């Protein structure tokens, strides 16, 4: 390999390391539940808020298919088809989607209402490589609102 290719390779590795570090920091500091998935819906990352809301440990959720794991069933008990899922839509159409009052399923089999935004993630060639899902557990949110009313 020529010296210029080695230098370019080194720069790319450093850039990737920096991006991964930035993503890790963002996931840790954002004030919401964040899950990232690849184009097949496989969970790549989940911050502590997401893990706590969903009732999973990181090693139980990372590597699992998001839709099959916590977005598989509608409130009425019927199957939630993957091709109607907003995460799939963001990956397919390349646009962000805002959803209110959807159902997510916890590790223990219980469910909760969630509001969320899902946005596609693009690689360095502007090709969609996955999606980022930021959600709020409405049950927890309403409980905190009630506590603040009584305390305030």
Total number of domains: 2
Task: Describe the global form.
Answer: elongated
Order of helices and strands: HEEHHHHEEEH
Distance between the termini: 67 Å
CATH evolutionary superfamily of the largest domain = PAS domain
User: What is the class of the largest domain in the CATH system?
Assistant: Alpha Beta
Low-confidence stretches: none
Measured by DSSP, the beta-strand proportion falls in 25-35%
Please estimate the helix content.
40-55%
For the largest beta-sheet, the strand count, sense and barrel status come to: 5 strands, antiparallel
Secondary-structure arrangement, i.e. CATH architecture of the largest domain = 2-Layer Sandwich
Strand order of the largest sheet: 2-1-5-4-3
The number of strands is 5
**What is the count of helical runs?**
6
- What class, by secondary structure content? alpha+beta
Average pLDDT, all residues: 85
Q: Could you name the CATH topology of the largest domain? A: Beta-Lactamase
Radius of gyration: 18 Å
């Amino acid at each position: 390999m020529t010296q210029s290719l080695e230098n370019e390779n080194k720069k790319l590795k450093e850039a990737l390391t920096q991006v991964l570090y930035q993503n890790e920091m963002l996931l840790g500091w954002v004030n919401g539940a964040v899950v990232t998935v690849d184009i097949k819906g496989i969970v790549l990352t989940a911050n502590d808020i997401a893990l706590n809301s969903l009732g999973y440990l990181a090693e139980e959720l990372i590597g699992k298919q998001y839709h099959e794991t916590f977005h598989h069933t509608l409130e009425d008990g019927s199957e939630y088809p993957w091709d109607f899922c907003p995460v799939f839509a963001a990956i397919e159409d390349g646009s962000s989607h805002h959803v209110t009052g959807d159902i997510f399923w916890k590790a223990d089999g219980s469910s909760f209402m969630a509001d969320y935004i899902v946005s596609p993630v693009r690689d360095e060639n502007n090709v969609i490589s996955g999606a980022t899902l930021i959600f709020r557990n409405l049950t927890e949110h309403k409980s905190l609102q009630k506590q603040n009313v009584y305390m305030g």
